[in-house]
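cache lookup: miss for this entity combination. No prior model stored, computing from scratch. Input as submitted by user K.M.:
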Amino acid sequence: MTFRKRYTGLIDHYRDRLPVHDDTRIISLGEGNTPLIKLHNIPDTLEKDVDIYVKYEGLNPTGSFKDRGMTMAVTKAVEEGSKAIICASTGNTSASAAAYAARAGITAFVLIPDGKIAQGKLAQAMMEGAVVLQVNGNFDAGMRLVKEVAEHAPVTIVNSINPYRLQGQKTAAFEIIEELGRAPDYHCLPVGNAGNITAHWIGYSEYACADGDKVTDACAFCNGVCKFAGGSIVGARPKMVGYQASGSAPFMRGEMVDNPETVATAIRIGHPQSWDYAWKVREESDGWFDECTDEEILAAQKLLAEKEGIFCEPASAASLAGAMRDVNSGKIPENSCIVCTLTGHGLKDPDTAIKQSTRPVISIEAKMDQVKTAILDNLA
Ligand code: AN7
C-alpha cells in the first residue's frame, strides 16, 4: 500500500513563494487545493465553442476563497504577537477570520452589515466564537470604522488591505496554471473590493516571468512582502475580467457608489478597497470590467446547479453570468480557454436559493402508490 503525502494547506505547499520563515507557526485548516472542474453541459448552450473551467473555491474549509488569504494573514498576525484580529465583512471574511482565530487561539472581532449577510455566514461567525458587531450601515461603513479603530486598539486588520491576504490568495492562480499546464486565456471573477482579482494577477505574473526575475508590474502590488522564488512554466498571462452586480458597480460607474444594493450580498460593496490595483490589473492584463443584473446572477447560479450539479452562492455566479454573455457576444472569442472563479459555496445562502427555486417539493403520504405516481410523473 502506498501513502499519499497528507495535504496540509497552501502555506506548506507553496512555502517557497510565500513570506514565511522555516520556524513560523502555520495557522492552517487545509485550505487551497480546490477542484478545477471543466463544464460539460453549459458550453453546449452557448453560441460559440469554448472551454470553461470553474475553480470551486466554495470547497475551502469555511466555504469561500477567503481562507487562502486568512491562513496567511492570521499566521503573520500570530507571528507578530497579535492577540486579536478585526475585519469588516459582507460575511465570508468574517466566517473565515472567526475560524482561523479560533484555530490560533486569538480573538476575532467582525463588523457585519445588519441584516444583510447570508445566514450560513452569520452562523459560522457565531459558532466559531467571533465577537460579532452588527453595524447599522453597510460594508463600507464597517470598513471605515475598522481602519480607524485599528489605529488605537491592539487589533490586526485582516481585510484584504492586509497585504498578506493577497499573498495567500495568489496561490489560486498557481494551482490553475499547474493543472492546465498553462494560464487560461480569460480569467473571470466577481468583484467586490477587488482584492481577489488583484491577488490572481500577482499569482499569474509571478509564474509568467523568467527564473529569478522580478516582474516589476506584479511586485508593485505586494507592498514589499512577496517572496518571489521564480520559475517559469508559462509566458502568457490571462486577460482578467471582473464582473460586478449592477446595483454595486463602482468600477462601471467610474466612481464610488454610496448605497450599493444587490441580491448578491457578498459583493454589496460601493467603496472597493483595492480600487487602484484593480484598474492596474485591467490595464496590464488588457481585460475589462462589466456588470450583471441580479436576474442574470441568479439565473447563472441556477443554471450551474441544474446543468452541472455545482452549487455556488449568488455573488460567485456573476463570473459565469458575465462570461456566458461575453462568449455569446463574441467579446471572448471562439476556442478560448476560460476559468471562472466560484468564490463561495451555495450553502452559505440557503434563503436566496430556496426563494428562487422553482422545483416543487411534492408532499405525499407514506404510501407506495403515491411514490410510484411521483416517479412516473417525473421521469425525464
Ligand atoms: C463569495 O467577506 O468582501 O473582490 O467581506 O464573499 O476580493 O472583495 C467578500 C467578497 C466575491 C469579492 N465573492 O471579492 C467579505 C467580502 C464572494 C465574496 C467576493 C466576495 P473581492
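stored under new cache key. Confidence is low (pLDDT under 50) at residues 210-218, 229-234.
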